[in-house]
Design brief:
The protein is built from six helices and no strands. With 103 residues, it is mainly alpha-helical. The chain has two domains: 46 residues, no CATH class; 37 residues, no CATH class. It comes from Methylobacterium durans.
Length: 103
């Protein structure tokens, strides 16, 4: 059961009317009508290659998120190296792990 305090706030009539007016006046994103839904096709039919890529799953995750405290000056130096600084930072543990003994 959903807790009462976790429910989204309800809109008052003027807010609802303003939202509906905004939707109705947007020429780039008109509200769908029944005919639009009848003509709609599944993504897999329209873009089969993209749909196949979306369906692929990994057998096991390649990366794992961890909480790790890094000194500010170290982060600043990596960030200063420009785009892809996270990839460069991730390469260092790979190099260090090569020198570790295996269990």
């Amino acid at each position: 059961m959903i807790e009462r305090d976790r429910l989204p706030p309800t809109l008052i009539d003027t807010e609802e009317a303003a939202l509906r007016a905004g939707i109705a006046s947007d020429p780039d994103n008109p509200e769908w009508i029944e005919g639009d839904f009848r003509r709609a096709r599944p993504v897999a039919d329209v873009f089969p290659d993209r749909a196949a890529r979306l369906r692929k799953t990994q057998d096991a995750p390649i990366q794992q998120r961890v909480g790790l405290a890094i000194d500010r000056d170290v982060l600043d130096r990596f960030r200063a190296t420009g785009p892809d600084w996270k990839k460069r930072m991730n390469a260092i543990p790979h190099e260090a792990a090569e020198d570790l003994p295996t269990a």
